[in-house]
Amino acid sequence: MFTNTPYTAQTGANGYKISTTPSYTSGTGSQPYAGSSIPPNPYATSAGTTGFGSTSNPVSYSNMQGLTNPLGNTPNTNLYTSPSSLSPAPAQTQKQVAGKQISNTQAEDEEGAVNFHALVEKRERENNRDVYEGEPYDCLKHLTQQQIDDYAKRGITDYLNCLRLSTKQELHSKYDRTLKTCEVQGVQDFKDDEFPPELTSLVGSNQAGRTSWKGLKWLRPRDIKGYTNFALFQDAIEPNDIKQGYLGDCYFLSSIASLAEWPDRIRNLFSLDKPNPYGCHCVKICDKGEWREVIVDQFFPCVSAARGPSFTKGNGAEIWVMLLEKAWAKINGSYDQIEAGLTRECLHDFTGACTQTLWLDDQNTYDSVWQKLLIGEKNNYAMTCGSTDVASKEELDKLGLINGHAYSLLGAYEVTSQGRVTRLVKLRNPWGEREWTGDWNDSDTKLHQLNPDDKRAIGMHERAENDGIFFMSYDDFRKYFTDAQICYVHDDFEYASIRAQSAAKQAKFFKVKIPQRGRYFFAINQKSKRKYPKDQQKEFKYSTATLLVAKQESDGTFKYIEGQQREDREVWTGESEDQIYEAGTYIVYAKVQWRNNDFDEFVLSAYGSSKVTFTEITKVEAQNVISEAYFDHANRLSKRQKKLLADNKSWILLDQTDDGFFYLAINNKSDKILNGEFKFTKMGGLKLKNPFNGQSVKVSLSPGKHACAILRVKDYKQLTALSLSQTIQFK
């Protein structure tokens, strides 16, 4: 006979806060529940058991409290269940088949219930704006009849060259078309009509809140004091070259300063490495998941020619910093729109790489976060962090910190001090001043007493006084900083994307060809909330996006790879350093549960060791993918995580993944037909997907066959309980 033991608090393998699983007690001793899946599996027994025993004492999960979703989302998925291996089960009652009473060795009946708390949203959301893509180049379109006549008077050769440019030469790049237009028209000071040097580009719709900006002047570099001999880059690209102005976009500064640690990451954002005679520049930005050319002119907001640029600028007469900021302002609507934000926005949009937020206030992640920082240091990932805004300003001032401020996270190190290993982080204030004054500050003797190898490892020899760079212990870092951002940028990775439109409840499927073994990130990209006026951004919520990747094997089966579900601007897979994709064909399931009526388009992207190719396929072509992928997920779990049936070989499993899906897998490994009926007596917030419906799953499985029923989460807020009863017969 099985009985329940009390629950105690515990954190599950996927980060969920759950109650511990019950121990089942029988006449032969106690066998603890060994499953690690979340939620706890009410069917799990250790290998060698014959099921639930000779009685049908229900296992109650009504005491489970505190299950929370760390993603802070409200998942809603639309899954498909493979109809293969399924046939209608014989008519039966719960304990009777074909009018006969079933013995306890033939049928099993059990009930389980899982109770959940309503989820609290935790994710911060960010924003985007569509960029004008340009039109096919036609130089004659930009000329008046008088200009054309002038060309003819100057000679037939010039005129024919003009025609050749418009009819024969293929200028696919918007920037190339713009430069040719400038060349044909003899432009000397290009002005961007899409983001003109006017007040609207400064304040957008917030003119009332930016009255002081009305006096700013738009000046060219040659008209600004100290910029007579300006250049795109002067000497080497240095992170310390970045100077903040009157705009509160320190998140932008710390992001590009982190990228500038590797100068080519900045240089590659520009189409040309020096100014052109037209004053026309092109910055490449990954906007809403697609790399785009953002064309900007070189008119910059200034208080006066003598005082120079008002906003972010470089150190000296280089203009690359101002151009990056202007391009960032353009795609987001105005300079006013880029005040305040998350560094992961910029890190993603200037690299195309997925960026992860690591929260520092959870003691359970103390070591795991540290390991990620070490990996980030080792792999040259761009990293940033944000200081707390909870501690008092006075306390932070004494420590040399700025509250609610973005810093570049330059590295994580383990050094030996006073005979023991100490964890240190290395940070940079993008202001280039105001450094940490606590333990391990620049004057601390502990720092200068490190052995030569440790000094070399942490870059002590590269330091200058009052450069904004400082060290602090990992413990102090967690105390005074709220989060760290890791951008998984790889300088040799390739990027690919495909745009898709979908209705509110429509899933999309894509066939992906991966030509080379390696690491890959897949992402669903939504429009950013920055496209909205600031007064609307506070209430804006990203739509729930669901992403699942499965590998198509040579025998036609599908292998579960990974998945994710979240409410965020980018929802992505690929966090694990150990997740390596083999060359081959994969199927990606992508769904966005649109909550914003003006949205119906997303971009699916891949970032990895080689350039993949995407092909959108139909639901019919992918009808078996979801159920087969989740059966593979179940099949790879250990026996201890499954409920073994009476034959001690067949099994069932109820599980949930990080993808936000629930599934019920049944595998008949016997030499008899398995007839089963599974009734969800409680399933608030869940819905069975085809070929099943209602609250019942009936299967009739021949020997060696399996089935997998998928449950779609309609609303996590309604997901209060999941309770199941079952009847199984072998015949």
Automatic annotation (TrEMBL):
The active site is at residues 250, 405, 429. Residues 1-13, 80-106 have a biased composition (Polar residues). GO terms for biological process: proteolysis. The keyword Electron transport does not apply. Belongs to the peptidase C2 family. Residues 19-30, 44-56, 66-79 have a biased composition (Low complexity). The keyword Plastid does not apply. Residues 1-110 are annotated as: Disordered. Keywords: Hydrolase, Protease, Thiol protease. One of its GO terms (molecular function) is calcium-dependent cysteine-type endopeptidase activity. This is Calpain family cysteine protease. It comes from Tetrahymena thermophila (strain SB210). PANTHER family: CALPAIN, CALPAIN-5. Residues 189-490 form the Calpain catalytic domain. InterPro entries: Calpain_cysteine_protease, Papain-like_cys_pep_sf, Peptidase_C2_calpain_cat.
